[in-house]
Amino acid sequence: MTIAPDNAQQGASHIYRAMRDLVQSIDDTIPGKFEITKEGIVHDMMSPIGPHELTVLRLRKRLEKVMPEEIVAHTGEPDVETESEGIMRRPDVMVIAEADMEIEGTFDPRTIHAAVEVVSRSNPDNDWVTKMRDYPLMGIPVYAIFDPRTGTGTVLTDIHATPDGPRYATRKDFVYSEDVTIADWTISTGNLPLYRE
């Protein structure tokens, strides 16, 4: 039996909405962070690890120090969602205009100036592989990764079309202690903590 593309899309949309409802119903009852990717639900069991949370805090404060007052480095909810792609993510830091936060429901990824992730010790591929694929699909123009395992990171920009879908064309790697530019703002990466073995 052949399924017409619009029926296939309806089926995929139905499955996505069911996953989203499940994530929203268990999000406050089970520790960790739940997100939806093309493969399904991702559960990052991150218990609040000091170096991860301290990195998020320092990055948020450094960004907000150099950005205009109407732009914020937001941490927390709500999620960023592209229902048509079946993706719902919650970046560690979202650079967004305060006015674009005055909504009900999830954030529109087209309003996000940059997504910043601090690599989880328990699931690094979520940041280095699946989010590197998902964020350009969602249209997030800048994706910055900070990796406390190695004291390195990268900033990805310039979304372009590829046979596998939209991908970032430009990658600028850095080591902790260098200045890094995220969207239009440059911050220091000095004094960011590392994970201990």
Which helices and strands occur, and which strands form pairs?
Blueprint: H1 5-26, E1 33-37, E2 40-44, H2 50-66, E3 71-74, E4 80-82, E5 87-89, E6 93-97, E7 112-118, H3 124-138, E8 143-147, E9 152-160, E10 167-175, E11 179-182, E12 185-188
Parallel strand pairs: 7-8
Antiparallel strand pairs: 1-2, 3-6, 4-5, 6-7, 8-9, 9-10, 11-12
Description:
- The chain has 197 residues and is α+β, with helices and mostly antiparallel strands.
- It is globular, with a radius of gyration of 17 Å.
- Helix content is 27%, strand content 32%.
- It has a single domain, classed as tt1808, chain A, CATH 3.90.1570.
Tag the structure with descriptive keywords.
single chain, two-stranded antiparallel ribbon, hydrolase, six-stranded mixed β-sheet, 12 strands, endonuclease activity, Uma2 family endonuclease, Uma2, alpha+beta, nuclease, 197 residues, tt1808, chain A
Main sheet, how many strands, which sense, barrel? 6 strands, mixed
What is the CATH architecture descriptor?
Answer: Alpha-Beta Complex
Cα-based radius of gyration, to the nearest Å: 17 Å
Count of helical stretches: 3
Strand order of the largest sheet: 3-6-7-8-9-10
Helix/strand order, N-terminal first: HEEHEEEEEHEEEEE
The CATH topology is tt1808, chain A
Q: What's the CATH C level?
A: Alpha Beta
